[in-house]
Amino acid sequence: MINLDDIKGRMDKSIDAYKRELSKLRTGRASVALIDGITVDYYGAPTPIDQTSQVSVPEAKQLMIKPYDKSILGDIEKAINAANIGLTPNNDGEVIRLNVPALTEESRKDLAKKVKGFAEDCKVAIRNVRRDANDMIKKAEKAKEITEDDVKSYEDDVQKMTDDFVKLVDTLASEKEKDILSM
Hints:
It is built from 5 helices and 6 strands. Helix 1 runs antiparallel to helix 4, helix 1 packs parallel to helix 5 (148-181) and helix 4 runs antiparallel to helix 5. The longest helix has 38 residues, at 105-142. The protein has a 4-stranded antiparallel sheet. A two-stranded antiparallel sheet has the order 1-2. It is α+β, with helices and mostly antiparallel strands. Strand 5 and strand 6 (96-99) form a beta hairpin.
């Protein structure tokens, strides 16, 4: 049978992934999300930095990483450099500071393009979910599990859901673009 909640859940996951991508964009402000996904070799195991250190934002343009074990300061510094996030770590023997430089006009426009690209990818993912849902509806109709009226109703529901999610992506993208370009 057709489960609209599953379809909505898959579309929600696309939105969540899009929000994660947006949070990783460097917008001229320090954010813990800038180092998400960066792992450090901690006793032979790749471990996320935020599990080996206290990560904080003491100032709007600075990120501070204070490892629980000072012996891995160098490893954290190497991991940040290897991640190529566009920030240079400053190691003072106690903590690592990442200073986030102000964005130039050109880099803001590049970031705005990235936001649009991520938005388009998310819309494609949502439309793929719609296609899969419509395929399930057609199969259910062929198997005589649902009537023609049900098919129309389900297709309308799926299309409305798709339109709502695409509108949400556009809203999120325009907010992020405004945020990037207005600094």
